[in-house]
């Protein structure tokens, strides 16, 4: 072979190497806002239209017994820090009589990813200081209108990335959060006549229940279509290769149940679904997991070493191994609080061992306190409770918590865990 031929071969090889650089990692965090865990047509409502969410559930491993906090501001702070509200301090949505003190986010996972060379985009719901100071290089123009009025800025950012860049996206539209004002095309996807009515809904409320539930499900359909659009741009940019995704709700909201702001399942239960190379298609795991586990899981998916202590654990080892917990604990607080001491402001605490669940009310709960409590109870009575009241449920038989049990031994066994939590 002549010298010129050898040189030509080397140049071609170098050109191929430069154009064939390795695909960078992509990490997508999907947080839906005020969503019923049964509002998908794969594992929940037959009236729902959720082909994209169904695809995520089919491709990933879903922890079906995950608990989140019953309000959004505490949940988002916990997602960022891997710490419980009692530790990071934001256990309420708003402070009575002033601005809420800042949450210490100096050890949050977006900052660690930025320090490891990742590029980040923050879109949608956000309660804290400027995300551009917390590890993100770009953000949506408005937290409330992101996705509702489009996501072109996000798509342009994704298209601007080099193929070798490691990139992460915080995708948290204010959906299906109220106002439930879906476009007509999404409302038409939901057959109102097929919506089931819980038997406890009063006869005079049933038509309005169907109307409101149709709008709610149409909001979910709108959210689902927007997720589809995100998936399309990820595919077009090659970002669907070498990609991991985590999907969850920030808190629950449900028609016909006591939900958001409460310790009941419709307020605190969410799937946590992980899609990655290590997940198995459509696997459902009954492990007891928590929103506090999201931050360490994201860092693990990114292969970024975490130098800080967290109260959660990575869920990746649980994909193959035994569950790491025998119980989980959650707490409910007023939406608006003095923000002085969580022990003096907690409304209720709850614990489950996977089957049995104990709720203990720490304060009196009355309708006249609705403005500060803000406990959602669409189409059901306000939950009047007295301090010291306790309720036991068998979640295996009564997931909607309609029939409290008289089980003193369960109250004693699980109550000791709540005693420790409240110390």
CATH superfamily: Alkaline Phosphatase, subunit A
Please identify the structural class as seen in this structure.
Answer: alpha/beta
Distance between the termini: 81 Å
Q: What is the CATH topology classification name? A: Alkaline Phosphatase, subunit A
Number of domains: 1
Radius of gyration over C-alpha positions, nearest whole angstrom: 23 Å
What portion of residues is helical? 25-40%
N-to-C order of helices and strands: HEHEHHEHEEHEHHEHEEHEEHEEHEH
Give the low-confidence spans.
1-20
Strand order of the largest sheet: 5-4-6-1-7-8-2-9
Total of helices: 13
- CATH architectural label: 3-Layer(aba) Sandwich
Please, could you describe this protein's structure?
This protein is of the alpha/beta class and 423 residues long. It has one domain: Alkaline Phosphatase, subunit A (3-Layer(aba) Sandwich), CATH 3.40.720.10. The chain has 13 helices and 14 strands. It has helices spanning 3-19, 51-59, 72-81, 85-88, 109-115, 152-160, 184-187, 206-236, 265-268, 294-301, 342-345, 370-373, 408-422, and strands spanning 26-32, 61-67, 94-95, 119-124, 138-139, 167-172, 243-249, 269-275, 283-290, 328-332, 336-337, 348-352, 356-361, 390-394. An 8-stranded mixed beta sheet has the order 5-4-6-1-7-8-2-9, sandwiched between helices. The model is unreliable at 1-20 (pLDDT under 50).
Structure at a glance:
By secondary structure, the chain is of the alpha/beta class. The chain is built from 13 helices and 14 strands.
């Amino acid at each position: 072979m002549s010298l010129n031929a050898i040189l030509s071969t080397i140049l071609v090889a170098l050109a191929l190497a430069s154009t064939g650089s390795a695909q960078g990692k992509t990490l997508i965090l999907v947080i839906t806002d005020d969503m019923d865990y049964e509002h998908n047509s794969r594992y929940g409502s037959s009236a729902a239209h959720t082909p994209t969410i169904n695809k995520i559930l089919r491709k990933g491993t879903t922890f079906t017994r995950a608990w989140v906090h019953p309000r959004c501001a505490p949940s988002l702070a916990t997602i960022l820090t891997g710490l419980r509200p009692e530790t990071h301090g934001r256990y309420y949505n708003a402070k009575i009589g002033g601005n809420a003190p800042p949450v210490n986010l100096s050890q949050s996972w977006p900052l660690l990813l930025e320090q490891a060379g990742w590029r980040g985009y923050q879109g949608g719901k956000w309660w804290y200081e400027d995300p551009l100071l917390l590890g993100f290089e770009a953000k949506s123009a408005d937290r409330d209108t992101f996705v509702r009025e489009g996501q072109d800025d996000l798509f342009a950012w994704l298209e601007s990335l080099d193929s070798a860049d490691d990139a992460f996206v915080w995708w948290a539209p204010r959906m299906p959060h109220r106002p439930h004002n879906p476009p007509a095309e999404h409302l038409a996807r939901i057959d109102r006549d097929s919506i089931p009515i819980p038997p406890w809904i009063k006869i005079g409320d049933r038509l309005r229940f169907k109307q409101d539930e149709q709008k709610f499900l149409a909001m979910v359909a709108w959210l689902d279509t927007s997720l589809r659009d995100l998936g399309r741009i990820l595919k077009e940019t090659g970002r669907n290769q070498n990609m991991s995704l985590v999907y969850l709700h920030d808190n629950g909201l449900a028609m016909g149940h006591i939900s958001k702001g409460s310790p009941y399942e419709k307020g605190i239960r969410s799937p946590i679904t992980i899609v990655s190379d290590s997940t198995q298609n459509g696997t459902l795991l009954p492990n007891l997991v928590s929103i506090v586990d999201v931050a360490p899981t994201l860092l693990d998916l990114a292969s970024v070493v975490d130098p800080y202590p967290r109260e959660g654990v990575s869920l990746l080892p649980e994909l193959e191994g035994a569950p790491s917990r025998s119980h989980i604990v959650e707490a409910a607080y007023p939406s608006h609080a003095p923000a002085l001491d969580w022990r003096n402001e907690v409304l209720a605490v709850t614990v489950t061992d996977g089957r049995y669940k104990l709720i203990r009310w720490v304060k009196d709960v009355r309708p006249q306190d609705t403005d500060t409590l803000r406990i959602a109870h669409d189409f059901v009575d306000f939950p009047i409770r007295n301090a010291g009241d306790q309720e036991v449920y068998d979640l295996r038989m009564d997931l909607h918590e309609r029939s409290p049990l008289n089980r003193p031994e369960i109250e004693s066994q699980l109550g000791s865990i709540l005693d420790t939590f409240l110390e």
